[in-house]
Prior knowledge:
The structure holds two protein chains of two kinds. Chain A contains seven helices and no strands. Chain A is mostly helical. Chain A has a single domain, classed as Arp2/3 complex 21 kDa subunit ARPC3 (Orthogonal Bundle), CATH 1.10.1760. In chain A, helix 1 (about 5-25) crosses helix 3 and helix 3 runs antiparallel to helix 4. The longest helix of chain A is centred in the middle third of the chain and has 25 residues, at about 105-130. Chain A is globular. Chain B is mainly alpha-helical. Chain B folds into two domains: about 1-125 and about 185-213, no CATH class; about 125-180, no CATH class. In chain B, strands 1-2 form a two-stranded antiparallel ribbon. Chains A and B meet through helix 1, helix 3, helix 4, helix 6 and helix 7 of A and helix 1, helix 3, helix 4, helix 5 and helix 6 of B.
Amino acid sequence: MFTEKKLNRIALLGAFSMFLSTIEYLFPRPIPFMRLGLANLPVILALELLPAPSYFLLVLMKVLGQALVNGTLASYVFLFSLTGSFASALVMWLCYRGLRPRITFIGISVMGALTSNMAQIVLSITFIFGASAWRILPLFLGIGLVSGVFIGIFAQRFSDKSRWWAAMKKEALHESP
Amino acid sequence: MSPRKRGRRRTDHLARYLAPPFRFWTGLALIPAWFMIDLIVLKFLLVLLFALTAGLAGKKIRYLYFFFLIGSITFFHILTPVGKILAEIGPFRITSGALETGVAKGLTLCGLVFLSLFSVTPALKLPGRVGGLLARMFYYFEEILDGRKKISASNFIGSLDDVLLELFPPGKLGEPGEAAAQEIRSNLAVSVLYLLFMGGAVWGSLLLQYLIV
């Protein structure tokens, strides 16, 4: 199921994701809980490249890698990250497989961001804030919408312009049965 | 990754004496007691200890973020009144039960994050194939970090593309090999002291709580 080449690609995309995560760390946050989600760019791009098992393994690697680098593996942050990432990855994968070419990366990214935020809000209401936190739902979804559009535009531009990505896709295509 | 991390990252002083798996398992052993401590004063003191230890581990703590986190958790708990009314601000009733629960929950979460920060390091090797894949990913991550200076903000996609093409030409992805090997240092005496001190502080606080209450 996982050839050496596939594992290398997963590891490389996971590393790319971790790198973008460190880049994002440099940006100031206007709201403490707000983040752009730059690390999701390789996950969105990987829709074009990886089959389902490899795709979800990449998501696991991304979450584990970030948890190890940031030191959050033994905290609730990991649970939130894991839940949000897998929920959004599943929705993005379904959107890509079911709606392509009628949906762009922007639409896919927005769906993923909203799903991730919804999953994390449900978790935070259950474990941290209590039922009153439903009041912040519109704010969180608004933030998800903005960041989703931004990352989607970025993913679309990268996919269109990057020679490296084009070569990666071409190589993967040649390997497909 | 070496104890002295690259670039702007800080030195992990604990990595000089404590092996990553030891730190991880010690951290995990503290978690049950940490959840069972209810006294806010004890919890607050332990959060300070955890923050200090995370600082020693080279982790930068955004105190404002955690202050905001505790504040927001407390705020949302106050919206549901429980117990004796302490004050009334407009339509809001600040109750003792809600206030205590909110602060305790906020401190618990902050402490858990700090505990994780000093217990988990990138050098921690997870077992099995997932662990192997993670090691490969960290190898590539280091490679990309090496090329980060060539990436410019004005031409972000173009410069990033150049770096990726140079480091990882498709079809010629390098294998991690020896470069992924990490130096693990450990000092038995410091490890025992660390275990006794952290274990004593957290499990001792739990014991103290039962003696007081």
